[in-house]
Amino acid sequence: MADSAATLSLERVLGVSAQHNSSFVSNAVTGDVAYPAGSVVVLYSPARDEQVRYFRATKSIACLCFSGDGRYLAVGERGRGPRIIVWDLEGAAPPVELRAHKYGVGAVAFGTGPRSDLLASVGFKHDRQICLWRWREGKLLGTASVTQKVYALAWRAGGEVFVTAGDRHVKFWSIEDAPGGAAAGAGGGRAAE
Asked: What residue ranges do the domains of the chain occupy?
């Protein structure tokens, strides 16, 4: 009998570990849905009624977000030393990994409009940190502290402001520009009135 290497591939994932609104997302361009099942991200196509792709992380997945053009998927891990992983859904580029949070990533959001090169992330409540990234370069641009738990993160259409919402707060964060127009970091959050 000849030796042959068996090839195994994942056929289907049963179950879901989504725990809040930041861990179940829909691609506005394709209509596909992404959700976590432990350390695997499942990409499901309602049009085809099937799971079409899987992405593997090393830790459990806490949050997900599609880019505005539908091409990229950002995923935040939970646990000590978590990563944010950005996958190119067209497969043209290797995943980008971002690291700055200490105890888990609670929410991620791609910038909009002219700021689509930015990604904002919020750590778990013990992390108490918002990070602003130029994600394609893997570069941390700035951080800001938060005092309350954050449940949601979203960008305003023009890309100059993002919003966090959580325990007893809704805050608007402005992007400060460095000379030459490059984003330098997150400005102070302003509470909603």
From this structure: 61-191
